[in-house]
């Protein structure tokens, strides 16, 4: 089937995934106000295009952490991808490799990080801070040894938000899907009505990260450290002072604090505040190439894309992920040209306006 936009892939994924798997992927925390606000905030932003520009030889390439990438995006970390397709992370990583974009391996991947990194391309590794600091730093070392190019340290999950869909479903991992990077025991597989087994498992394993945790990670690796989950300007500037190579402006896709501001609404202010002191990426609600253009105009070096990649994975495995990334690339090239831009640098000089209720 031909998919003309990511909405088509979303519908295809919803048709094939069991209800509780779809809820695990699609849901947010609480009343899902922040989840819905991510899209609403992006849709309120409009770009002011420029005309009569030279557009031949245009490119979507950018440099991220010292390496060129074909698109200003990376695949976001998503846990337990074998829930959505038997090939899981391996299929998604292969498609990202061939698209020329980084793939972020999750601490809670359902395939060992070394196997995913061996696919090649530009793997990054996402770190959750564990109760045992030694185990956290061992994961960092394993990622570096496996060839990962950056550590994406998620700092907005001291524990998992109350994801009511999962709780109502009594969601638990099937026996065939495990946390492949460390021994997680039985907690994530124990089904209890009114309880998310995944949340119960993370409550046992995770600890709140602190600035001292950031320093411990930086001292343990030569890789660039990127802090994911920053929304306050004060945290962004402190991240620069702490030596972070990048920050990801994000409310965790609406899955942590319900009521947290959408990242796109803080992006411009944060980009101005850090003033080139580190790379600034955006995560949350990206659904088309125009969204990437908007993020660039507001100061983002790149974006992370999570759920849409999983839609492609669920709908058609590796080929579905390729379709997701191809659609985003096609839409971005189209948006760039129609906005009068021949590069992502030009896109970052565009002006924007917010329209409608906000």
Domain module tally? 1
- Class from helix and strand fractions: alpha/beta
The CATH homologous superfamily is termed Aldolase class I
Summed up, the helix count is 14
CATH architecture: Alpha-Beta Barrel
**Gyration radius, rounded:** 19 Å
CATH domain fold name = TIM Barrel
Strand percentage, roughly?
5-15%
Strand sequence of the main sheet, in spatial order? 4-11-10-9-8-7-6-5
**Topology as a string of helices (H) and strands (E):** HHHEEEEHEHEHEHHHEHEHEHEHHE
Given as residue ranges, the uncertain stretches (5+ residues, pLDDT < 50) are none
Biggest sheet descriptor: 8 strands, parallel
- CATH domain class name: Alpha Beta
Beta strand count: 12
Specify the overall morphology: globular
Note the gap between the termini: 38 Å
Family: Belongs to the FMN-dependent alpha-hydroxy acid dehydrogenase family.
Active site: 252
Keywords: Flavoprotein, FMN, Oxidoreductase
EC number: 1.1.3.46
């Amino acid at each position: 089937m031909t998919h003309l936009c990511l909405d088509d892939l979303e519908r295809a994924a919803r048709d094939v995934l069991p209800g509780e798997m779809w809820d695990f992927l699609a849901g947010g925390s609480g009343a899902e106000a922040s989840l819905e606000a991510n899209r609403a905030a992006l849709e309120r932003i409009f770009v002011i295009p420029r005309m009569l520009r030279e557009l031949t030889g245009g490119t979507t390439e950018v440099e991220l952490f010292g390496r060129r990438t074909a698109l200003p995006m990376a695949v976001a970390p998503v846990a337990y991808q074998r829930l959505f397709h038997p090939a899981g992370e391996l299929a998604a990583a292969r498609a990202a490799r061939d698209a020329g974009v980084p793939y972020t391996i999750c601490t809670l991947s359902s395939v060992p990080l070394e196997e995913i990194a061996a696919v090649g391309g530009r793997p990054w590794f996402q770190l959750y801070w564990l109760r045992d600091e030694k185990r956290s730093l061992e994961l960092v070392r394993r990622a570096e040894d496996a060839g990962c190019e950056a550590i994406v340290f998620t700092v907005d999950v001291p524990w998992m938000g109350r994801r009511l869909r999962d709780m109502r479903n009594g969601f638990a991992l099937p026996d065939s899907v495990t946390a492949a990077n460390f021994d997680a025991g039985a907690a994530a597989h124990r089904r209890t009505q009114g309880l998310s087994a995944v949340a119960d498992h993370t409550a046992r394993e995770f600890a709140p990260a602190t600035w001292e945790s950031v320093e411990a990670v930086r001292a343990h690796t030569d890789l660039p450290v990127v802090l994911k989950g920053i929304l306050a300007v004060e945290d962004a500037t402190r991240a620069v002072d702490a030596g972070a190579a990048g920050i990801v402006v994000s409310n965790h896709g609406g899955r942590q604090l319900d009521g947290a501001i959408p990242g796109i609404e803080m992006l411009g202010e944060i980009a101005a505040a850090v003033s080139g002191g580190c790379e600034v990426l955006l995560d949350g609600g990206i659904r088309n190439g125009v969204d990437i253009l908007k993020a660039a105009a507001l100061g983002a070096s790149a974006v992370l894309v999570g759920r849409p990649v999983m839609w492609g994975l669920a709908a058609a495995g590796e080929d579905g992920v390729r379709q997701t990334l191809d659609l985003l690339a096609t839409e971005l090239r189209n948006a760039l040209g129609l906005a009068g831009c021949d590069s992502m640098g030009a896109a970052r000089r565009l002006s924007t306006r917010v329209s409608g209720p906000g």
